[in-house]
Write a structure and sequence with these properties.
This protein is α+β, with helices and mostly antiparallel strands. Helices cover 26% and strands 25% of the residues. The protein binds alpha-D-glucopyranose.
């Protein structure tokens, strides 16, 4: 993975005692195997993938990382010793170690774990045997590849035995009913293919066709070696030995294995490969874990990846795929770590972990959250907007005819969760509007998708109909004084009980809905639906009026009211006194008049900004309040309960930029940057965003957690580009409105827009204004350029 033309100029990136970024920022190299928590990589293609931590632990899935887990994994972020492993045994000395720290934790003479975009490599050495173990998922096929290479640095011939192991899950994870699941699993050896196959005749999910507990897991997997195997095993008892364990499987020391395959064993796969290394010699052994709808399909995938050249080409497609996917839109700021995050890591995080894998190491989900993946799909807007559009269609097809929507649903089984959440449906108009501003392509409104409960209706309703129904139901569910009802929660899932009786209100939702009504008033006008345009404008004004009449607490906006009318997020409260989203979205949605916008930003600064970012609320709840919801049940300072909830904390950066507070923008950007944290305090990965960082009411303030699976990833990239660098698609053109941190001397961006490429340089000093291809223009707005052209833009700021 050497540098290529067009790669960013290498600038020093920070390291800490556990690891460092590679020079180009595209790899994170863990160099000490004991960071405070597992530092993972979520490696996925659109259908399948794997999670692997720096210890080598992790698991693999197909189509649904929770319901269709291929290999078993026990979530334990302290021991982190559960997964798919490679053992080496020196056949002469009997010494055994693993090619990653877990599961043996036998001391290694050299260790590095390189997490990259689409792959992870473990580089180890013990007793002068150097090894590199690369893991990746093919760019498209439902196959995972391991490439293992050995170098004998010992100056004498060596005889090794390499054993690759995994434990089959073939279904829902975690299978709490492990003994029950075991009754349906089957493994069988395939000698010519040097493979162990597995399937399960029970899939523990409701099936529309056969009912619960009466359907097979719809996939077959095969785990194969590229080199001749001396032994194969399908039974865990034989592999580990009675009361044995993964750190020291008994079979590794046995010259011959008693095989256990079939339907009556405890399903694993183990393949033992003899490796002879002359002095100074090297060897390569690969493994493929392939999954298909049938044995033939899985075998076919093994065939496709059957040569070293095919597997090398597969890896090359993965790495070049990521490079090309992210190439068209890039930024350069004075902060090299921010660039590494925005250009590569958070977009990789949003695509690989959020949209494709739908999984992290702290959370195995597999489901599509109606609001979640719509927001994540923003990551495609500038680089591949059709994927964002496809996501909108997919979610539209999970909306009911009355305009409400599933809170989440599981692909494969289509199990969906019906709730009284009140914001989910509105993220559809939100994302479609973003798509429209980016592309100007009004035909998206005619895209068709069925409603969940009227799939027979022909033709399928248009996306504009879906959007309209989302608005209709949201506008109909308001309190007598015109504030949206909160129901079982809005964006904040944990406010789960405020409105169960149908009276509790959400002022945040009021701000959000008002902003959307304004946006769609504009869109309806543009497609000639003047009646709707007028109606939406009136509704927006009435809603903004109501929110301002009833939602202002004196120095900031209230969050909402409970069913009994008690306000939430008021200066009179001991805990939960101020909530972030009600302030930031008042600014972002233009519902706050200027004086209130200034006041609520000041309140955010005073009460919520910490050195790790803006808290979601303060002070934290310290005892359960059943009338509010489960947010009050979290330990104080954790997650939504008074932690820095990163998804919302990045919105604060946008709000600060919109309010033109460059100093706060700089502070908040630094605060959420994981790359510069002290790992002893922060714990989490330095290269991706966490879901949350403990707030001041936790004894571990500043500790990050719930990494990878967070909506903040796609948002951070969009906010840095649109609000900090200020390059923002608007109805009339591409707005240039930077709000740089005071310490920044400038910034650059390469960005595609409607067929042209814009090279934008933001420079401080000189007379403020914009030059396009050397000529000054009147406004700071770019009109569409001819397709295929490259436009040079200089934005001078004070
Ligand atoms: C979780 C949910 C997301 C919600 C957020 C705040 O991340 O997946 O939908 O908005 O929590 O409660």
């Amino acid at each position: 993975m050497s540098a290529r033309p067009g790669d960013p100029r290498p600038r020093p990136l920070p390291s800490n005692r556990y690891g460092r970024f590679s020079e180009d920022g595209r790899e994170y190299v863990v160099t000490d195997p004991r960071p405070p928590r597992p530092w993972a990589n979520v490696i996925a293609n659109p259908r399948s993938g794997l999670v692997v931590s720096h210890t080598g632990s992790g698991f693999s899935w197909i189509d649904n990382s929770q319901l269709a887990t291929i290999t078993r994994w026990q979530q334990d972020l302290v021991s982190d010793r559960s997964g798919k492993f490679l053992y080496v045994r020196d056949a002469d000395s009997g010494d055994v170690w693993s090619l990653s720290p877990s599961p043996t934790w036998v001391p290694l003479d050299r260790y590095a774990c390189r997490h990259g975009l689409g792959y992870t490599v473990f580089e180890t050495a013990r007793d002068r045997i150097a090894a590199a173990w690369t893991l990746f998922a093919d760019a498209e096929e439902t196959a995972e590849v391991w490439v293992v290479s050995f170098t004998n640095e010992s100056g004498r011939p060596r005889r090794l035995e390499l054993t690759a192991t995994l434990e089959w899950c073939m279904g829902v994870s975690p299978s709490a009913r492990r003994e029950f699941a075991r009754l349906f699993l089957e493994t069988w050896p395939d000698e010519p293919r040097r493979a162990v196959f597995a399937r399960s005749r029970m899939w523990d999910v409701p099936s529309a066709r056969y009912g619960h507990w009466n359907t097979s897991f719809p996939f077959v997997s095969a785990f194969a070696s590229s080199a001749p195997v001396s032994d194969m095993q399908g039974d865990k008892g034989e592999l580990l030995g009675r009361y044995g364990d993964w750190p020291a499987p008994a079979a590794l020391q046995q010259p011959r294995w008693t095989r256990g395959f079939g339907r009556h064993e405890d399903a694993v796969a183990a393949l033992r490969v003899p490796v002879a290394l002359p002095a100074g010699g090297s060897a390569r052994v690969d493994f493929v874990l392939a999954t298909g709808a049938s044995e033939e399909e899985a075998a076919g995938l093994l065939e496709c990846l059957g040569t070293p050249a095919a597997r090398d080409a597969s890896l090359e497609r993965v790495t070049s795929g990521w490079r090309e996917r992210l190439a068209a839109h890039r930024v350069e700021t004075p902060d090299a770590t921010l660039d590494a995050l925005v250009n590569d890591w958070v977009r990789y995080q949003a695509i690989s972990a959020r949209l494709w894998g739908r999984c992290g190491y702290y959370q195995q989900s597999g489901a599509f959250g109606f609001r979640d993946q719509l927001q994540d799909s923003q990551v495609w807007l500038t680089i591949d907007p059709e994927r964002c559009r496809a996501q909108a269609r997919l979610h539209a097809a999970h909306q009911f005819a009355d305009g409400s929507a599933y809170h989440w649903w599981h692909p494969l089984t289509e199990q969906g969760h019906v709730t009284k959440m009140t914001d989910d449906r509105l993220w559809l108009p939100f994302v479609v509007a973003s798509y429209l501003r980016e592309t100007g392509d009004l035909s998206v409104l005619d895209d068709a998708a069925p409603f969940l409960d009227s799939r027979q209706e022909a033709p399928d309703p248009s996306l504009s109909e879906h959007v309209l129904r989302a608005f209709r139901i949201s506008c109909s569910k308001t309190s007598p004084r015109g504030i949206p009802l909160i129901g079982a929660g809005d964006w904040n899932d944990g406010l789960s009980a405020m409105g169960l009786e149908g009276r509790g209100e959400s002022f945040w939702l009021g701000h959000f809905l008002a902003g959307l009504l304004a946006e769609w008033s504009e869109i309806w006008g543009r497609v000639g639906r003047v009646d709707l345009a007028r109606e939406f404008r009136q509704r927006r004004d009435a809603l903004a009026g109501a929110v301002n009449a009833h939602g202002w607490d004196g120095a900031w906006y209230l969050r909402g009211t409970l069913d009994d009318g008690t306000p939430l997020g008021s200066s009179r409260d001991r805990v939960g006194r101020i909530f972030l989203n009600a302030q930031t979205w008042a600014i972002l949605s233009d519902t706050a008049p200027p004086d209130r916008a200034a006041a609520c930003l000041a309140a955010v600064r005073e009460h919520l900004v910490t050195e790790a970012g803006a808290l979601l609320l303060a002070p934290a709840f310290d005892r359960p309040v059943p009338e509010i919801g489960y947010i009050t049940r979290y330990a104080p300072g954790l997650r939504e309960n008074g932690g820095v909830y990163t998804h919302a904390a990045v919105w604060a950066i946008a709000a600060a930029a919109k309010a033109r507070d460059g100093e706060l923008v700089g502070r908040l950007l630094d605060a959420i940057n994981p790359a510069t944290k002290d790992p002893e305090r922060y714990w989490a990965e330095p290269y991706v965003l966490p879901g949350n960082v403990d707030g001041p009411d936790s004894p571990h303030q500043g500790r990050g957690g719930w990494t990878w699976y967070t909506g903040s990833a796609a948002w951070l990239q969009r906010i840095v580009c649109e609000w900090v660098l200020g390059v923002r698609p608007e109805w009339e053109g591409l707005r240039l409105d930077p709000c740089l941190p005071p310490s920044w001397s400038g910034a650059r961006m390469t960005r595609p827009w409607r067929g042209a490429t814009y090279e934008i340089a933001i420079e401080r000093g000189g007379i403020a204004g914009v030059e396009v291809d050397g000529k000054r223009i009147e406004e700071n707005l770019l009109r569409t350029a001819e397709k295929g052209t490259r436009v040079r833009v200089v934005v001078r700021v004070a």
